[in-house]
Amino acid sequence: MASGGLQLMGFVLAFLGWIGIIISTAMPQWKMASYAGDNIVTAQALYEGLWMSCAMQSTGQIQCKVYDSLLKLESTLQATRALMVAAILLGLVAIFVAVIGMKCMKCMEDDQVKKMRMAVFGGVIFIIAGLAALVATSWYGNRVARAFYDPYTPVNTRFEFGSALFVGWAAASLAILGGSFLCCSCPRRETSYPPSRGYPKNAPSTGKDYV
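RE: above sequence
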């Protein structure tokens, strides 16, 4: 029962992490910058994400523009996109695989060993998906930090970490933690020893063997 509860908790955490990865990928606030001119009325906040860039005026009006061409984007942004999409697809596969291996499901009840292996395999895929998202968000955050501390970057165009990065880091951590719980939820097999063999009883001597 304890392993079943750990397995269910691991699946829930990993599933929430997968949802967070989707939300982080869709959010435009991967990096943000605020600029205020001589008058506070002209203040605006700039956001850039994986798919679009947005500008929010001090009046509350938000204008977003989707990136025109994929080939015009930086290679780091394209790689971040690919890693996040891969994390989403891997998480989807992990959900189907882990559901089959859950103890509360009736699939593969005849073979408990294969059922446990499916749960472990789903946990491994969740861990890989979390690592892909973690690498993508960390790589993007490192690029934002390097540009911020670059002395040649204009002050009014220095971006900082956006909320999507923090959502991505939290989601990746949940996916890795949940996948680890799924991998550890299967009970260890008890070591089985071969049955002890009884010693053969010596047949009573009839005396015919001696001459």
